[in-house]
Amino acid sequence: MIAGITDVLNPLKNILTEVLQWLHGSVGLSWAWSIVALTVLVRVLLVPVTVRQIHSMQNLQAHAPEMKEIQQKWKHDKQRQNQELMQFYKDNKINPAASCLPIVLQIPIFISLFYVLRGFEKDIFPHFPGSSLEWLGLVDITEPVKYGWGPLLLVIYVLSQLSSSYFMSTTMQGAQRIMLMVLPIIFIPFIIGFPAGLMIYWLTTNLWTTGQGLVTRRLMPKPAPPEKRSSRAPAKDDPVPATNGSGTKSQAGRGGSGSQAARKPVAGPPRRVKRKRGGGGPRK
């Protein structure tokens, strides 16, 4: 299975190798800084997809109250809940998958770079005598991140991953957001054996995502919130009767003047006259 994945990723591996060799041989960057420059190039190419991701996240955030109402209404019927949510996405032109596209597109690049660095000392490094594999005199890009100053790089990675996850999870529910924030810590036992150069790529990606989140929050306009509908609101075409100070309806606008309406006798029950008791004789 691993051999099959390697064969599929061979074209991407060749492209990454050519770019790294060009950045090192022609531009004059060290191998470690070539990886940083490669990461920046990848993120620049993904800018159109990232813009779609940001718009999708903002759109989801604007409609979050309405989606929560649907979830509460059909919380006992998950199938109907999913149907209603899918219809809501369709009616409001929301694509939840757009928020995951940048991450999905980077996974093949990440895996391909892993295989490039695994065979780096044998396949690429001998063709460039005199070059160095160290980054800032701290780590060797081909050695596992657990050696030397690699754990410090790992701590910086975790902090950068938490900050980038914070900006990516602003529209998620509480439990989903907590899970996304905890994942970087859970991944530590698995990535501690990765080459340091791969960690440099991941760290640069996280820093780019964090800076991108700060910039877009300031510069990109948020979508207008949806109109709030209320069944108690009066219709625009229905006339609202005016009232005077005592709370009774005004006579103006009914076809007659106020004085004529005032002269009209008001029909009502007959007035009863109370008789006085005593002092009077019987009637004859």
Walkthrough of the structure:
By secondary structure, this protein is mostly helical. It has one domain. The protein has twelve helices and two strands; from the N terminus they run αααααααββααααα. A two-stranded antiparallel ribbon has the order 1-2. A hairpin with a 3-residue loop joins strand 1 (about 135) and strand 2. Helix 1 (about 1-25) crosses helix 6 (about 100-120), helix 2 runs parallel beside helix 11 and helix 8 (about 150-170) packs parallel to helix 11. The model is unreliable at about 230-260 (pLDDT under 50).
Range of strand content: under 5%
Question: Strands across the major sheet, in which order?
Answer: 1-2
* Distance between the first and last residues' Cα: 126 Å
Number of domains: 1
State the share of residues found in helices, binned by percent. 55-70%
Outline type: elongated
Roughly how many Å is the radius of gyration?
36 Å
Structural class: mainly alpha
**N to C succession of SSEs:** HHHHHHHEEHHHHH
Specify the number of helices.
Answer: 12
